Amino acid sequence: MFRTVEMPLWALILLLLFAGVTFASHFLFPSVRWFFRRRMERAVARLNERLERPIQPFKLARRHDTIQRLIYDPAVAKAIAEHARAEGVPEEVAFQQARRYAREIVPGFSATAYFGIAIRAARWLSNRLYRVRLVDRRTESIDPDATVIFVMNHRSNMDYVLVTYLAANSSALSYAVGEWARVWPLQGLIRAMGGYFIRRRSLTPLYRRVLERYVQIATKGRMTQAIFPEGRLSLTGGVGPAKLGLMNYILSDFDAESGPDVVFVPVALNYDRVLEDRVLMEAGASGGRRFRLRVMPMLGFLLRQLRFRLAGRFHGFGYAGVSFAQPLSLRQFGAIAPERGAQDLAVELMGRIRAVMPVLPVPMVAHVMQAARGPLREAVIDARVCALGTALREQGACVHAPLDNLSDAARAGLKQLVARRFLITRGDEYTVAPGAREMVAFYAASIAHLVDASAAFVEPDGSGAT
Questions:
Q1: Helices (H), 311-436
Q2: Is the pLDDT of residue 264 over 90?
């Protein structure tokens, strides 16, 4: 038992290596994970004390556990069997495909990444780029046991940043994110923030069922979500129709009698400057939705903004406005008219979003310049912006004007449009620059539905040089 055993050095190294790995995997790693898990639980408990809607246990569950729960769900198991029969493959192959879909969809929320990094970065970036205006938050009166889903129009990829910042004191949002974000290192960051990915292409019945069950399980788990019903960025500047996929998933599993209520909070977002406006206009003109990521123009834009910042000439991109509409309870919605489905729900929600669309300086000036038949003097633009803003306020629109002064709004809008060379000046007259009429229409379109609905506002007569 105590005899000396001789062995080669390489064998000793391998033996020690295997022993070290075994010790780490069976004793060290579980202890370390337990230590950090305990720290995270204490941190989340402190966070929940200040949040309006505490982070639910479903969101804090380990990603592996959620994936296992999803792929062994009875509905998913049935879809696996159907997929195997339809494709003529063994069920084990179909099961592995479902597992890959689940791993692709399920996030791995990190409270540290969300509250320690993401919210601080979102606050810093939002306030550096825009003057943020928030109107009428209506989430405080919602049943604390209900599942809250923020429903937003999609103007810019800045939407994610802005709403994350503004909802920081409410709860941790879980976004439905498109395939564009499945690139390193963005993919890991979005998962750590609680976002889940949705494919736009190659939607097999098995994938749809896995996604459907994840959304339904998360909704029953009271996870606060944020979705963009339009699905993609607006190419026209206006609010488009909603896609029904996620709403169908939620409605089909909703139990008004025993399950938690689902409350949709419509949120309208608008900007004086959409960072991707030129890319969106090009995509719209080409008749497709493929956005070409051109590295050199993007780097040029970033370097110009950095140069302006260093020279003290960067004054931001104007205003960003966020308005909250009246929440819609799915339980009450169904009680009023049980036969109403996802289409009716989508129309109602998008109507509420349109009704509270923030009216900002650039869209107002853009509307005035788009409607003009010729050059306009600054005094005429000021008068027309004041008339438009007053009429919209009277009908209940959310007019975000600096210092509540519509004349200041006219000047702020003119400054932005002239700086971007969408308007040109000759003396004290302004006119739309050649080739910029589509861009002016893009910004005017964000409030066009409000202007059309305003019977009080009538465009003043005359071509403008008066």
A1: 330-336, 342-355, 361-371, 378-394, 406-419
A2: yes
Neighbours of 72 (CB within 10 A): 12
- Model's pTM, two decimal places? 0.81
Please confirm whether the linkage preceding 434 is cis (ω < 30° from 0). Answer: no
Distance in angstroms (rounded) separating the CA atoms of residues 434 and 420: 13
Name the residue among 124, 396, 389, 416 with its Cα closest to residue 271: 416
Highest mean pLDDT among 5-14, 17-26, 52-61, 390-399: 390-399
Q: Which of 79-88, 336-345, 387-396 has the lowest mean pLDDT?
A: 336-345
Closest CA to 167 of 197, 196, 129, 193: 193
Neighbours of 18 (CB within 10 A): 10
Residue boundaries of the structural domains of the chain: 104-275+317-355, 361-453
Angle at CA of residue 245, ends 242 and 247, nearest 5°: 75
Residue-wise burial string across 154-190, b where 16 or more C-beta atoms lie within 10 A, e elsewhere: bbbebbbbbbbbbbbebbbbbbbbbeebeeeeeeebb
- Scored b (16 or more CB within 10 A) or e, 253-283 reads bbeeeeebbbbbbbbbbbbbbbeebebbbeb
> In CATH terms, are 104-275+317-355 and 361-453 the same topology?
no
Q: What is the pLDDT of residue 185?
A: 59
- CA-to-CA distance for 105 and 215, rounded, in angstroms? 10
On whether the CB atoms of residues 274 and 155 are closer than 8 A, the answer is yes
Paired tokens of 19? 């022993």
Q: Is pLDDT larger for residue 363 or for residue 40?
A: 363
Q: For 104-275+317-355, which CATH superfamily applies?
A: Glycerol-3-phosphate (1)-acyltransferase (3.40.1130.10)
Average of per-residue pLDDT values in the chain: 80
Tell me the C-alpha distance between 31 and 25, whole Å: 10
Question: How many Å apart are CA 185 and CA 180, to the nearest integer?
Answer: 12
Residue 450 has pLDDT above 80, yes or no: yes
State the pLDDT at residue 82: 94
Pick 336 or 412 by higher pLDDT: 412
Greater model confidence, 303 or 132:
132
Please answer whether residues 240 and 355 qualify as being in contact, where contact means their C-beta atoms are separated by less than 8 angstroms: no
The secondary structure of residue 180, as a DSSP letter, is: G
| Region 361-453: CATH code | 1.10.10.10
Helices (H) and strands (E) in the chain, counts: 21, 11
